[in-house]
């Protein structure tokens, strides 16, 4: 069985989980506490980050985008990177937006400061960073809402890796209660559609010790 090393609140690991589930590729989840720097895991990924995918033939892949590209090429029946050159460029642009710009301006300022910083032994949360994360959230939701209003899915007419990347980041923030869905109704409606897909079920079942999600987290009609 292929193994995906992950952390429940890693948006990058969640993105890969969604891709695997959308493509109906069986896999086993294995939590990897990267702050422990386990020697066996360092042999798999010297960067000591998740996600890491270990295929049944022993092939080991690290970095969420590299893994997703590999999966889309190895299992092409359901393409998630687009079919035309233009579609693929737009999907890649939006994945870079959410895994780069959104991650820096929102996810890292909220999820990292409030949850991961302590686990990694890097001190106390930075109140200024948290304030910046909340301030940055609304314009990002407004942009996501605009995409949802003008397209069937974020990158065009078909569900793509762009939707899964965005939903992965938002789901982690939703889990820690840091999303005010009243900020943008169109973004909320789009997220409800993604959240209702069968591939999302395992994410909604996630529970992290000491951190309880809000009641609406697993509610499909929130």
TrEMBL record:
<comment type="subunit">
    <text>Homodimer.</text>
</comment>
<dbReference type="InterPro" id="IPR036249">
    <property type="entry name" value="Thioredoxin-like_sf"/>
</dbReference>
<feature type="domain" description="GST N-terminal">
    <location>
        <begin position="1"/>
        <end position="79"/>
    </location>
</feature>
<protein>
    <submittedName>
        <fullName>Glutathione S-transferase</fullName>
    </submittedName>
</protein>
<dbReference type="Pfam" id="PF13417">
    <property type="entry name" value="GST_N_3"/>
</dbReference>
<dbReference type="InterPro" id="IPR040079">
    <property type="entry name" value="Glutathione_S-Trfase"/>
</dbReference>
<dbReference type="GO" id="GO:0006749">
    <property type="term" value="P:glutathione metabolic process"/>
</dbReference>
<dbReference type="InterPro" id="IPR036282">
    <property type="entry name" value="Glutathione-S-Trfase_C_sf"/>
</dbReference>
<dbReference type="GO" id="GO:0004364">
    <property type="term" value="F:glutathione transferase activity"/>
</dbReference>
<keyword id="KW-0808">Transferase</keyword>
<dbReference type="InterPro" id="IPR004045">
    <property type="entry name" value="Glutathione_S-Trfase_N"/>
</dbReference>
<dbReference type="InterPro" id="IPR010987">
    <property type="entry name" value="Glutathione-S-Trfase_C-like"/>
</dbReference>
<feature type="domain" description="GST C-terminal">
    <location>
        <begin position="84"/>
        <end position="215"/>
    </location>
</feature>
């Amino acid at each position: 069985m292929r193994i995906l090393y992950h952390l429940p609140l890693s948006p990058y690991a969640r993105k890969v989980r969604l891709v695997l589930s959308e493509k109906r590729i069986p896999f086993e989840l294995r939590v990897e506490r990267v702050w422990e720097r386990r020697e066996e895991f360092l042999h798999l990924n010297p960067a000591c980050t998740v996600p890491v995918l270990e295929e049944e033939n022993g092939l080991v892949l690290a970095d969420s985008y590299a893994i997703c590209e590999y999966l889309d090429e190895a299992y092409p029946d359901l393409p998630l990177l687009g079919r035309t050159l233009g579609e693929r460029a737009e999907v890649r642009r939006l994945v870079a937006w959410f895994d780069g710009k959104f991650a820096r301006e929102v996810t890292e300022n909220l999820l990292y400061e409030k949850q991961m910083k302590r686990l990694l032994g890097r001190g106390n949360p930075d109140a200024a960073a948290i304030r910046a994360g909340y301030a940055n959230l609304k314009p990002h939701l407004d942009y996501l809402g605009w995409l949802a209003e003008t397209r069937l899915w974020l990158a065009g007419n078909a569900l793509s890796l762009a939707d899964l990347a965005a939903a992965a980041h938002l789901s982690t923030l939703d889990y820690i209660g840091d999303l005010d869905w009243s900020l943008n109704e169109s973004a909320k409606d789009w997220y409800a559609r993604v959240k209702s897909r069968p591939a999302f079920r395992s994410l909604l079942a996630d529970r992290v010790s000491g951190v309880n999600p809000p009641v609406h987290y697993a509610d499909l009609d929130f």
